[in-house]
Amino acid sequence: MAERKKILLRLDPAVHDALARWAGDELRSTNAQIEFLLRRALSDAGRLPRDAGAIPRRGRPRTRKDDGTAQDHGEEEK
């Protein structure tokens, strides 16, 4: 995976607060929410590069139970 670019982004404080609240509602960091929205805007405009990597899935990674089936964290075994 290519190294991620770091940028400085200046925002109106009210816009930042709205993004932070929205990110919290979506269980994302503010940074992840901004990237999600930028990718969606690029895709909607037909400008998302084909070689753009996928957004990493949210949450903790799935684990394997002893029988080889996937189990989400927090899911109780039966």
Written overview of the protein:
This is Toxin-antitoxin system HicB family antitoxin. Residues 48-78 are annotated as: Disordered. It comes from Marinactinospora thermotolerans DSM 45154. Strands 1-2 form a two-stranded antiparallel sheet. The protein has a domain at 10-49. The protein is mostly helical and 78 residues long. The longest helix is centred in the middle third of the chain and has 15 residues, at 30-44. It has helices at 13-25, 30-44, and strands at 63-64, 70-71. It is built from 2 helices and 2 strands, in the order H-H-E-E. A hairpin with a 5-residue loop joins strand 1 and strand 2. 36% of the residues lie in helices and 5% in strands. Helix 1 (13-25) crosses helix 2. The mean pLDDT is 84.
Key traits:
single chain; 2 strands; 78 residues; two-stranded antiparallel ribbon; 36% helix
> Roughly how much helix do the residues carry, as a percent range?
25-40%
Mean pLDDT across residues: 84
SS strand fraction: 5-15%
Per the principal axes of the C-alpha atoms, what is the gross shape?
extended
Please state the CA-atom Rg, rounded to the nearest Å. 17 Å
Major sheet: size, sense and barrel closure? 2 strands, antiparallel
Poorly predicted regions are: none
Compute the number of strand runs.
Answer: 2
Number of helices: 2
Structural class: mainly alpha
What are the secondary-structure elements, in order, as H or E? HHEE
The strand order across the widest sheet is 1-2
N- to C-terminal distance:
37 Å
What's the short version?
One of its GO terms (biological process) is regulation of DNA-templated transcription. The chain has helices spanning 13-25, 30-44; strands at 63-64, 70-71.
